[in-house]
Amino acid sequence: MQRLTWPGTNWQESVTQTIADYYQLTKPRLILLFLITTAAAMWVAAKGQVDGVLVLATLTGGALAAGSANTINCLYDRDIDYVMERTRHRPLPSGRIQPWQALVFAIALAIISFTLLATVANLLSACLAMSGIAAYFFVYTAWLKRSSTQNIVIGGAAGAIPPLVGWAAVTGDLSLAAWAMFAIVFVWTPPHFWPLAMMIQEDYAKVGVPMMPVVDGDDSTAKQMMFYTVLLVPTSLLLVYPLHASGGVYGAIALVLGGMFIQKVWQLNQSPADKTMARSVFKFSILYMMLLCAGMGLDSLPLTQNLVAQGSQVLQMLVLGA
């Protein structure tokens, strides 16, 4: 007996696959971290009292801008993506999406992002989001990625723009605290990305991309990671002193997380060629940024500030009473 099929089944599967392909072009896992840093900046800027509509619009606009930048990255890198086993089956190198379609998609995302941010937030946040797209493509993807071992260091500035977008959306300007958050993400990027590069350096070597582990080796890369990880601790504390944008709760969280990050990278330095250890550092770097941003948000809440103030008063009374 012939099996009956629903007339629209193949068409529905095709549409679903196409949607999934376009979604994959935006690299959604990368976008999540960008949104976390954006949200943290908004919470700190607004002292824990952010308008819900503004948050939704800013995060949506930021996600669209990041998706546009990632799509352009996929479009430009489709030649090397075809060679690397890890990326060969992406929508562009596999031929499921044509280059012109990806370009139109990226432009559409950028236009919607700019319009949304300029309308609901302000022009500064919209322009910053567009500058992030430009920096990611022109500085990192087209210029540095295939020409310098410092590609991820200098190019990391593009990934540090989302906190500026969040801060500008709330305040309409960029204070020193906003730039401190930019610096945190900027310094965090090398010890976050280089472990991944250590894990897949054979792929990068195959296509001639001069990532640090490929050119300078695992040992040198691990040592440079330690430099940036140690530098990250005082950088993360700038929000506490001298800027006073965050308080003791965030400061304590930053110190603990920074110590754990240094320990992880120190362990990698003992066995730089250990891919399992590199994977562990990479995963922890993601957790570090998520928890650090959560610490910023927690510290900014009025409830937290009130509890800290009350605790300080009780401590003073105990000290004076003694």
UniProtKB/TrEMBL annotation:
| Name listed for the protein in its UniProt record | Protoheme IX farnesyltransferase
**Sections of the chain in a coiled coil:** none
| Summary of the function given for this chain in its UniProt record | Converts heme B (protoheme IX) to heme O by substitution of the vinyl group on carbon 2 of heme B porphyrin ring with a hydroxyethyl farnesyl side group.
Cellular localization per UniProt: Cell membrane
Q: What is the reaction catalyzed?
A: heme b + (2E,6E)-farnesyl diphosphate + H2O = Fe(II)-heme o + diphosphate
The pathway that the record names for this protein is: Porphyrin-containing compound metabolism; heme O biosynthesis; heme O from protoheme: step 1/1
Task: List the molecular function annotations (GO) for this entry.
Answer: protoheme IX farnesyltransferase activity
Q: Which GO terms describe its cellular component?
A: plasma membrane
PROSITE patterns reported for this sequence: UBIA (PS00943)
Q: Which organism is it from?
A: Acaryochloris thomasi RCC1774
Tell me a GO biological process for this protein.
heme O biosynthetic process
Membrane topology category: Multi-pass membrane protein
The UniProt family comment states: Belongs to the UbiA prenyltransferase family. Protoheme IX farnesyltransferase subfamily.
Under InterPro entries, the record lists: Protohaem_IX_farnesylTrfase, UbiA_prenyltransferase, UbiA_prenylTrfase_CS, UbiA_sf
Q: Which residues form the signal peptide?
A: none
Q: Which UniProt keywords apply?
A: Cell membrane, Heme biosynthesis, Membrane, Transferase, Transmembrane, Transmembrane helix
Miscellaneous note, as given in the UniProt record, is:
Carbon 2 of the heme B porphyrin ring is defined according to the Fischer nomenclature.
- UniProt keyword Nucleotide-binding present: no
**Enzyme Commission number(s):** 2.5.1.141
**TM spans (from-to):** 30-46, 52-76, 97-117, 123-144, 151-170, 176-196, 225-243, 249-268, 280-298
The record, for PANTHER family, names: 4-HYDROXYBENZOATE SOLANESYLTRANSFERASE, PROTOHEME IX FARNESYLTRANSFERASE, MITOCHONDRIAL
Predominant location category: membrane
